[in-house]
Amino acid sequence: MHQESKAPSGPRYSPIRIRATWDGTGSVEDASRALGFSRAKGYDLIRRGEFPCRVLRIGRTTRVVTASLLRVLESGLPEYNGTHADRDTS
What we know:
Elements: H1 15-21, E1 25-27, H2 28-35, H3 39-47, E2 55-58, E3 61-65, H4 66-75
Antiparallel strand pairs: 1-3, 2-3
Protein name: Helix-turn-helix domain-containing protein
InterPro entries: HTH_17
Pfam families: HTH_17
């Protein structure tokens, strides 16, 4: 008997697949891989406030906001956590 897969085919970290299979947040490891860098680099960027997507810290857990990750993947523009390049510092 043939079974159909409910997950869309294609690259594991494509926006279409992420949209279809992720909940409201994803792991730092998966988001880092989707963006093309390692888990260690992802946590390093989070510590420095430079992770390109919105990040939630819930107790000792860190999660990446899926909608933010999708915007970054589709636009190529980062959404830094509280750090904006266009912020007026005067």
